[in-house]
TrEMBL record:
Keywords: Signal
Pfam families: TPR_6
Alphabetical list of InterPro entries matching this protein: TPR-like_helical_dom_sf, TPR_rpt
Organism of provenance: Thalassobacterium maritimum
Name under which the protein is recorded: Tetratricopeptide repeat protein
Signal sequence region: 1-25
Protein backbone atom coordinates (compact mmCIF):
# COMPACT_ATOMS: atom_id res chain seq x y z
CA UNK A 1 0.00 0.00 0.00
CA UNK A 2 1.29 3.43 -0.90
CA UNK A 3 1.89 5.18 2.44
CA UNK A 4 0.69 8.48 1.07
CA UNK A 5 -2.79 6.98 0.60
CA UNK A 6 -3.08 7.15 4.37
CA UNK A 7 -3.20 10.90 4.06
CA UNK A 8 -6.38 12.29 2.55
CA UNK A 9 -6.01 14.51 -0.47
CA UNK A 10 -6.60 18.23 -0.02
CA UNK A 11 -9.86 18.28 -1.94
CA UNK A 12 -11.55 15.46 -0.04
CA UNK A 13 -10.26 16.74 3.29
CA UNK A 14 -11.59 20.21 2.58
CA UNK A 15 -15.06 19.11 1.50
CA UNK A 16 -15.36 16.61 4.35
CA UNK A 17 -14.41 19.41 6.75
CA UNK A 18 -17.19 21.49 5.26
CA UNK A 19 -19.70 18.68 5.73
CA UNK A 20 -18.71 18.27 9.38
CA UNK A 21 -18.99 21.99 9.96
CA UNK A 22 -22.47 22.23 8.51
CA UNK A 23 -23.56 18.99 10.20
CA UNK A 24 -25.07 17.65 7.02
CA UNK A 25 -24.63 14.61 4.80
CA UNK A 26 -24.10 14.98 1.03
CA UNK A 27 -27.22 15.31 -1.04
CA UNK A 28 -27.69 12.91 -3.92
CA UNK A 29 -28.65 15.63 -6.40
CA UNK A 30 -27.59 19.23 -5.95
CA UNK A 31 -29.92 20.26 -8.77
CA UNK A 32 -32.87 19.45 -6.52
CA UNK A 33 -31.95 22.23 -4.11
CA UNK A 34 -35.12 23.98 -3.13
CA UNK A 35 -35.60 27.57 -4.14
CA UNK A 36 -36.33 28.42 -0.53
CA UNK A 37 -32.74 27.71 0.51
CA UNK A 38 -30.58 30.74 1.13
CA UNK A 39 -27.54 31.32 -1.12
CA UNK A 40 -25.05 29.91 1.38
CA UNK A 41 -26.97 26.63 1.71
CA UNK A 42 -27.32 26.41 -2.06
CA UNK A 43 -23.62 27.08 -2.63
CA UNK A 44 -22.62 24.46 -0.07
CA UNK A 45 -24.97 21.97 -1.73
CA UNK A 46 -23.12 22.53 -4.99
CA UNK A 47 -19.79 22.08 -3.22
CA UNK A 48 -20.94 18.76 -1.78
CA UNK A 49 -21.68 17.62 -5.32
CA UNK A 50 -18.26 18.93 -6.47
CA UNK A 51 -19.96 21.44 -8.76
CA UNK A 52 -17.30 24.05 -8.07
CA UNK A 53 -18.10 26.50 -10.85
CA UNK A 54 -21.76 26.73 -9.86
CA UNK A 55 -20.80 26.99 -6.20
CA UNK A 56 -18.34 29.76 -6.98
CA UNK A 57 -20.92 31.89 -8.80
CA UNK A 58 -23.47 31.53 -6.00
CA UNK A 59 -21.04 32.07 -3.13
CA UNK A 60 -19.26 35.00 -4.78
CA UNK A 61 -22.57 36.84 -5.09
CA UNK A 62 -23.45 35.95 -1.49
CA UNK A 63 -20.09 37.32 -0.28
CA UNK A 64 -21.10 40.80 -1.43
CA UNK A 65 -23.83 40.88 1.22
CA UNK A 66 -22.04 39.69 4.36
CA UNK A 67 -19.25 40.95 6.60
CA UNK A 68 -16.83 39.38 9.14
CA UNK A 69 -19.27 40.38 11.89
CA UNK A 70 -21.87 37.93 10.57
CA UNK A 71 -21.99 34.52 12.27
CA UNK A 72 -21.96 32.72 8.92
CA UNK A 73 -18.99 34.68 7.55
CA UNK A 74 -16.33 32.02 8.37
CA UNK A 75 -18.36 29.27 6.71
CA UNK A 76 -19.24 31.45 3.72
CA UNK A 77 -15.63 32.55 3.27
CA UNK A 78 -14.23 29.04 3.59
CA UNK A 79 -16.81 27.69 1.15
CA UNK A 80 -16.03 30.43 -1.38
CA UNK A 81 -12.31 29.75 -1.00
CA UNK A 82 -12.83 26.05 -1.79
CA UNK A 83 -14.95 26.83 -4.82
CA UNK A 84 -12.43 29.42 -6.03
CA UNK A 85 -9.53 27.01 -5.59
CA UNK A 86 -11.15 24.08 -7.38
CA UNK A 87 -13.21 25.72 -10.12
CA UNK A 88 -12.43 24.62 -13.67
CA UNK A 89 -10.30 25.29 -15.50
CA UNK A 90 -7.74 25.65 -12.74
CA UNK A 91 -5.69 28.84 -13.00
CA UNK A 92 -2.97 30.44 -10.95
CA UNK A 93 -5.24 33.45 -10.46
CA UNK A 94 -7.90 31.20 -8.98
CA UNK A 95 -5.37 29.65 -6.61
CA UNK A 96 -4.09 33.08 -5.60
CA UNK A 97 -7.64 34.34 -4.99
CA UNK A 98 -8.36 31.27 -2.83
CA UNK A 99 -5.22 31.94 -0.79
CA UNK A 100 -6.40 35.49 -0.11
CA UNK A 101 -9.71 34.14 1.19
CA UNK A 102 -8.05 31.48 3.35
CA UNK A 103 -5.69 34.09 4.82
CA UNK A 104 -8.61 36.44 5.51
CA UNK A 105 -10.39 33.68 7.42
CA UNK A 106 -7.30 32.90 9.49
CA UNK A 107 -6.76 36.59 10.24
CA UNK A 108 -10.33 37.60 11.06
CA UNK A 109 -11.58 34.40 12.74
CA UNK A 110 -8.37 32.89 14.17
CA UNK A 111 -10.12 30.75 16.79
CA UNK A 112 -12.74 29.31 14.48
CA UNK A 113 -12.36 25.63 13.63
CA UNK A 114 -12.41 26.51 9.94
CA UNK A 115 -9.28 28.60 10.47
CA UNK A 116 -7.46 25.32 11.11
CA UNK A 117 -8.88 23.90 7.88
CA UNK A 118 -7.83 27.03 6.01
CA UNK A 119 -4.26 26.72 7.31
CA UNK A 120 -4.12 23.09 6.19
CA UNK A 121 -5.44 24.05 2.75
CA UNK A 122 -2.82 26.81 2.52
CA UNK A 123 -0.23 24.18 3.35
CA UNK A 124 -1.46 21.88 0.58
CA UNK A 125 -1.42 24.74 -1.92
CA UNK A 126 2.13 25.66 -0.87
CA UNK A 127 3.36 22.07 -0.93
CA UNK A 128 2.41 21.55 -4.56
CA UNK A 129 3.48 24.95 -5.79
CA UNK A 130 6.60 25.55 -7.85
CA UNK A 131 8.34 27.55 -5.13
CA UNK A 132 11.87 26.52 -4.21
CA UNK A 133 10.89 26.43 -0.55
CA UNK A 134 7.47 24.84 -1.13
CA UNK A 135 7.96 22.08 1.45
CA UNK A 136 9.18 24.52 4.11
CA UNK A 137 6.21 26.82 3.50
CA UNK A 138 3.78 23.92 3.77
CA UNK A 139 5.35 22.58 6.94
CA UNK A 140 5.13 26.04 8.52
CA UNK A 141 1.36 26.09 7.93
CA UNK A 142 0.97 22.58 9.37
CA UNK A 143 2.95 23.58 12.45
CA UNK A 144 0.67 26.58 12.99
CA UNK A 145 -2.32 24.24 13.15
CA UNK A 146 -0.55 22.05 15.69
CA UNK A 147 0.40 25.08 17.79
CA UNK A 148 -2.93 26.92 17.64
CA UNK A 149 -5.29 23.93 17.81
CA UNK A 150 -3.47 21.41 20.03
CA UNK A 151 -5.20 18.14 20.78
CA UNK A 152 -7.76 18.55 18.01
CA UNK A 153 -8.43 16.30 15.06
CA UNK A 154 -7.17 19.01 12.72
CA UNK A 155 -3.88 19.08 14.64
CA UNK A 156 -3.53 15.35 14.07
CA UNK A 157 -4.20 15.80 10.36
CA UNK A 158 -1.65 18.59 10.23
CA UNK A 159 0.96 16.38 11.92
CA UNK A 160 0.33 13.59 9.42
CA UNK A 161 0.62 16.04 6.53
CA UNK A 162 3.84 17.48 7.94
CA UNK A 163 5.27 13.98 8.22
CA UNK A 164 4.22 13.22 4.66
CA UNK A 165 5.85 16.42 3.45
CA UNK A 166 9.09 15.48 5.18
CA UNK A 167 9.01 11.95 3.77
CA UNK A 168 8.40 13.16 0.22
CA UNK A 169 11.94 14.53 0.20
CA UNK A 170 13.28 10.94 0.38
CA UNK A 171 16.07 12.39 2.51
CA UNK A 172 16.99 9.90 5.24
CA UNK A 173 17.27 12.51 7.97
CA UNK A 174 13.93 14.09 7.07
CA UNK A 175 12.27 10.67 7.01
CA UNK A 176 13.64 10.02 10.49
CA UNK A 177 12.36 13.45 11.54
CA UNK A 178 8.91 12.45 10.23
CA UNK A 179 9.04 9.25 12.27
CA UNK A 180 9.99 11.18 15.42
CA UNK A 181 7.07 13.54 14.83
CA UNK A 182 4.66 10.62 14.47
CA UNK A 183 6.04 8.67 17.42
CA UNK A 184 5.50 11.76 19.57
CA UNK A 185 1.97 11.93 18.17
CA UNK A 186 1.24 8.34 19.25
CA UNK A 187 1.90 9.35 22.85
CA UNK A 188 -0.34 12.42 22.56
CA UNK A 189 -3.12 10.43 20.90
CA UNK A 190 -2.93 7.30 23.06
CA UNK A 191 -6.25 5.50 22.86
CA UNK A 192 -7.67 7.70 20.12
CA UNK A 193 -9.12 6.58 16.80
CA UNK A 194 -5.98 7.83 15.06
CA UNK A 195 -3.49 5.38 16.59
CA UNK A 196 -3.93 2.70 13.95
CA UNK A 197 -3.37 5.19 11.14
CA UNK A 198 -0.30 6.71 12.78
CA UNK A 199 1.28 3.36 13.64
CA UNK A 200 0.73 2.00 10.14
CA UNK A 201 2.25 5.10 8.57
CA UNK A 202 5.32 4.86 10.81
CA UNK A 203 5.69 1.22 9.74
CA UNK A 204 5.55 2.20 6.08
CA UNK A 205 8.22 4.85 6.60
CA UNK A 206 10.55 2.36 8.25
CA UNK A 207 9.98 -0.36 5.65
CA UNK A 208 9.68 1.56 2.38
CA UNK A 209 11.91 4.57 3.07
CA UNK A 210 14.58 3.27 5.47
CA UNK A 211 14.48 -0.47 4.67
CA UNK A 212 14.30 -1.30 8.39
CA UNK A 213 11.95 -4.23 8.89
CA UNK A 214 12.23 -4.84 12.63
CA UNK A 215 10.74 -1.48 13.70
CA UNK A 216 8.33 -1.66 10.77
CA UNK A 217 6.97 -4.96 12.08
CA UNK A 218 6.70 -3.56 15.61
CA UNK A 219 4.65 -0.58 14.50
CA UNK A 220 2.56 -2.58 12.02
CA UNK A 221 1.74 -5.03 14.79
CA UNK A 222 0.68 -2.09 16.94
CA UNK A 223 -1.55 -0.86 14.11
CA UNK A 224 -3.09 -4.33 13.94
CA UNK A 225 -3.75 -4.28 17.69
CA UNK A 226 -5.43 -0.88 17.60
CA UNK A 227 -7.19 -1.53 14.30
CA UNK A 228 -5.97 -0.87 10.79
CA UNK A 229 -7.29 2.43 9.42
CA UNK A 230 -9.05 0.76 6.49
CA UNK A 231 -10.94 -2.23 7.84
CA UNK A 232 -11.89 -3.27 4.32
CA UNK A 233 -8.19 -3.76 3.56
CA UNK A 234 -7.36 -5.75 6.71
CA UNK A 235 -6.57 -8.87 4.68
CA UNK A 236 -4.08 -6.88 2.58
CA UNK A 237 -2.53 -5.44 5.74
CA UNK A 238 -2.16 -8.92 7.25
CA UNK A 239 -0.57 -10.14 4.03
CA UNK A 240 1.93 -7.28 4.15
CA UNK A 241 2.73 -7.96 7.80
CA UNK A 242 3.27 -11.66 7.12
CA UNK A 243 5.61 -10.93 4.23
CA UNK A 244 7.71 -8.62 6.37
CA UNK A 245 7.84 -11.19 9.17
CA UNK A 246 9.05 -13.86 6.77
CA UNK A 247 11.65 -11.53 5.29
CA UNK A 248 12.86 -10.74 8.82
CA UNK A 249 13.16 -14.50 9.56
CA UNK A 250 10.19 -14.44 11.94
CA UNK A 251 8.65 -17.50 10.34
CA UNK A 252 6.45 -18.64 13.21
CA UNK A 253 5.01 -15.17 13.67
CA UNK A 254 4.39 -15.04 9.91
CA UNK A 255 2.54 -18.37 10.07
CA UNK A 256 0.25 -16.96 12.77
CA UNK A 257 -0.42 -13.85 10.70
CA UNK A 258 -1.15 -15.83 7.55
CA UNK A 259 -3.40 -18.19 9.52
CA UNK A 260 -5.41 -15.24 10.81
CA UNK A 261 -5.75 -13.99 7.24
CA UNK A 262 -7.06 -17.36 6.00
CA UNK A 263 -9.44 -17.96 8.88
CA UNK A 264 -10.79 -14.46 9.42
CA UNK A 265 -11.02 -13.35 5.78
CA UNK A 266 -12.37 -16.30 3.79
CA UNK A 267 -13.15 -14.17 0.73
CA UNK A 268 -9.69 -12.63 0.52
CA UNK A 269 -7.75 -13.01 -2.73
CA UNK A 270 -4.67 -13.56 -0.55
CA UNK A 271 -6.15 -16.61 1.21
CA UNK A 272 -4.75 -19.32 -1.06
CA UNK A 273 -1.25 -17.84 -1.32
CA UNK A 274 -1.18 -17.23 2.43
CA UNK A 275 -2.07 -20.88 3.01
CA UNK A 276 0.74 -22.00 0.68
CA UNK A 277 3.20 -19.97 2.72
CA UNK A 278 1.91 -21.56 5.94
CA UNK A 279 2.55 -25.00 4.40
CA UNK A 280 6.10 -23.97 3.44
CA UNK A 281 6.80 -22.65 6.94
CA UNK A 282 5.37 -25.84 8.50
CA UNK A 283 7.76 -27.95 6.41
CA UNK A 284 10.72 -25.79 7.45
CA UNK A 285 9.73 -25.97 11.14
CA UNK A 286 8.27 -29.45 11.81
CA UNK A 287 9.01 -29.06 15.51
CA UNK A 288 6.43 -26.26 15.71
CA UNK A 289 3.52 -28.56 14.79
CA UNK A 290 1.85 -25.81 12.79
CA UNK A 291 -1.79 -26.49 11.97
CA UNK A 292 -2.63 -25.83 8.33
CA UNK A 293 -5.94 -23.95 8.07
CA UNK A 294 -8.47 -25.02 5.48
CA UNK A 295 -9.77 -22.54 2.95
CA UNK A 296 -13.42 -21.78 3.59
CA UNK A 297 -15.88 -22.66 0.87
CA UNK A 298 -17.27 -19.41 -0.43
CA UNK A 299 -20.60 -19.59 -2.21
CA UNK A 300 -21.88 -16.94 -4.56
CA UNK A 301 -25.08 -15.18 -3.62
CA UNK A 302 -26.81 -15.91 -0.32
Amino acid sequence: MNPHKLIRCALILSVVTLLWTTGCAPESESSSTEATQDPLETGISELRAFNFNQAHAILLEHAQHISPEDLDWPLATYSLALATWHQAPSTQQGIDDAKVLFHALVEKAPQHNLAASALIDLGRIAEFSQADDAAAQAQAYYKRVQDKFPGTEMAVRASLLEAQSLARSFDEQQVKQAIQLLEKLTKEQAGSQWIGTIEQYIAHLYAFYLDELEPAITHYSAAKEFGFPRSSDTDLSLWQLGLWQQEAKQDLAAAETFTELVEEHPRSVYGSVARKRIIEIAKQHPEANITIPELAEVRLGR
